[in-house]
Each structure stands twice: as C-alpha cells, then as structure tokens.
Amino acid sequence: MQKLRVGIVGAGRIGKLHAENLKNFKEVEIRAISDIFAEQVGDWAAQNGIEKVTEDYRDILNDPEIDAILICSPTDTHVGIIKEAALAGKHIFCEKPISLDLSKTAQVLQWVKQAGIKFQLGFNRRFDHNMSRVNELLKAGKAGDLHILKITSRDPAAPPEAYIRSSGGLFADMAIHDFDLARFLTGSDVEEVYVQGAVKVDPVFAECGDIDTAIITLKFKNGVLGVIVNSRQAHYYDQRVEAFGSVGSIAIQNDTPNTAELYTKDGVSRETPHYFFLERYKEAYVKEMHCFIDAVLNDSQVPVDVNDGYQAELIAFAAGISLREKRPVTLAEAEARIVQEV
After folding, report:
1. pTM for this model (two decimals)
2. Residue 191: helix, strand or coil by DSSP?
3. How buried is residue 215: exposed, middle or buried, by Cβ count under 10 Å (0-12/13-18/19+)?
C-alpha cells in the first residue's frame, strides 16, 4: 500500500487532534511534528507513535521523505509557512483562515498554482453528517428552488481576552466558518453583506475593538437570501441550519450525545448539545482528512481549496466594513478596497 508521509506544524489543540486521527489511517505515516514548545509535547508524541519532535518547522520542510504537511500553527504564521512549503513541493492542509490579510491570501493562490501542489483548507463543517445531508437534499431539489438560508452559530462561552485580541475578530475567527458553509449550501458566491453587531456578552470585546453578537444578512449571486446569527456565549453549542425553498424546507437541529427523551409529569427533557466544536465535529475532522489524503494519493481534486478560503475571508472583510459604516457592502467594493490598499 502506498503511504503518505506527513509532518505536522503546531502541536496545540487542533494539531494534536489531527495527529490522533491520522495515526488510525493505514495509508498515512506521521514522520514528524514541530512546535515552539517541543519539550512539552515529547511524551504525547511518543504515545502517538511520532518519533521526531522539533522546535523548527523547517526541519519538516527540508525532509525530502515528507510528502505533505498539516499547518496547525497560529494564523499569523500561515502565509510564511505556506510559501516555504509550496517552494519545497509539499502538499498542504491548512487550518482556517489562511491569513488575516486578503492581499496575502491572494498571493497564496498564486504560490499554490505555480507549485502544482494540493492545498486543502480546514473548513470542517462541510464534512459534518448533518451539513452534508442538507447539501445533498438541496442539490437533489428536495426543497425546490432555495429562497432563504438561515445559519445559527453560537459558542457556549466567550474566549479569553488574549485570544480575542489576536483572533482577527468575530467575522474572521468565528463567522468565517458560517460564510464558507453558506457558500457550500447555496452553491453560490456572495454578492452583498449587511451586518448589525453589538457587544452583549462581555465589555472586553469592545475594549478589543470587536463584537460578540451579530446578525449578518447575505445576498448571493444566484438570488438566494441568507441570514447568519452569531453569539460568543449561548451557554451551549448552537449549530442549526434551515434551508427554505419553493416546495419545502430542510432543517437540522443540534447534535446531542443521544436522542433519548425523558417524559414525566414535570415535563420533557433530553441531553444538552455537544459542548463545543471538538465534540460536535469529531467525525467531520476525520472525513476532511480522508479527503485530503485521497486527493494527494490519487491526484483528485480537494473539496475545499484556496479560493474557498479567499472568498470566506472576503465576506469577513466586507462584513467588517458594513459594521463600521452601518450599510450594505458589495463584495466587489470590498475587493476594490483591497487592491487600493495594496
């Protein structure tokens, strides 16, 4: 069996998750992992069969026996590592977003094309069993012509202040998943964005120049209307979708550990939803990695590419303009601003 030899850059929460998933892939061999705190992950790496641990990601890029890398390091490191990896001819899986600077993401488009490598972005919600089923039903026309797409996405608890300051804001950090999911389900790019946002959870968001609550309306190029509802704190993980069409609607509710319901004289109760994304999208992380491995080994198309990342970042950029200027913003206008700034 042909094996894909991979290296992982970043041994934080998501890097460890991917490593623990990949060790169960018979067609994959994890050759090395890098992290600036390498001395802290040695025992974990050994337990997961990873022999080489290094502080310098370039040790992975310079290893001729490594075919592909997973970039799971902080966002501000992505572009530099992508450029070096592309020049080294390594296939790349990168966690979202590609960057917080659209002009740099546009450069990544060119680097990947010139290098002729596979590049997949970690928009894992496309691979969720519920989200993918909605997509299948929509493509099969079960709801008729799609009129309105509503995505509800609320986190259980607000992140710490240090994270808020470096995250890129609600649009680039949190809602970007919803922007990609909206494009995936509608099969269309976005034409216009309008945002109403506020600080309702914690004043620290305002101190960081951010918001924690938003209603985002989208107008798609194919005529579909979209609504995204975000909150940084719902006390539970709220991930729901409703697709309303000309002959019916498709809806998914929150996933729970089981679907048993208790009926008593005091009422009806059931399990609370999975607490956060690692539990809720556990299987989606496995499926997205299967797709990446398959694309590399069988020279097939990756399901989420650089342009998908660029489009989601462009929506986030336009949403930021809309929030600041309190008006609808077309993506054409947003993209023109990027060109002017460059």
Report:
1. 0.94
2. strand
3. middle
Phi-psi region of 187 (alpha: psi -120 to 50; beta: other; left: phi over 0): left
Which 3 state secondary structure label does DSSP give 43?
Answer: helix
pLDDT one digit per residue (tens) for the chain, 342 residues: 579 999 999 999 999 999 999 999 999 999 999 999 988 998 999 999 998 999 999 999 999 999 999 999 999 999 999 999 999 999 999 999 999 999 999 999 999 999 999 999 999 999 999 999 999 999 999 999 999 999 999 999 999 999 999 999 999 999 999 999 999 999 999 999 999 999 999 999 999 999 999 999 999 999 999 999 999 999 999 999 999 999 999 999 999 999 899 999 999 998 989 888 888 999 999 999 999 999 999 999 999 999 999 999 999 999 999 999 999 999 999 999 886 664
Residue 290's H or E segment, with its range, is helix 282-298
What sign has the CA pseudo-torsion 262, 263, 264, 266?
A: positive
Q: Which residue has the tokens 């390498």?
A: 38
Domain at 125-277+310-341: CATH code:
3.30.360.10
Q: Which residue has the tokens 């899986």?
A: 93
Taking the C-alpha atoms of residue 31 and residue 137, their distance in angstroms, rounded to an integer, is: 40
CATH superfamily entry for domain 4-117: NAD(P)-binding Rossmann-like Domain (3.40.50.720)
Domain ranges of the chain: 4-117, 125-277+310-341
Question: Which residue do the tokens 């601003």 mark?
Answer: 337
d(CA 194, CA 181): 17
Q: How far is CA 22 from the centre of its chain?
A: 19
Instruction: Please tell me whether residue 9 adopts helix, strand or coil conformation.
Output: strand
Give the Cα separation of 336 and 332 in Å (integer): 6
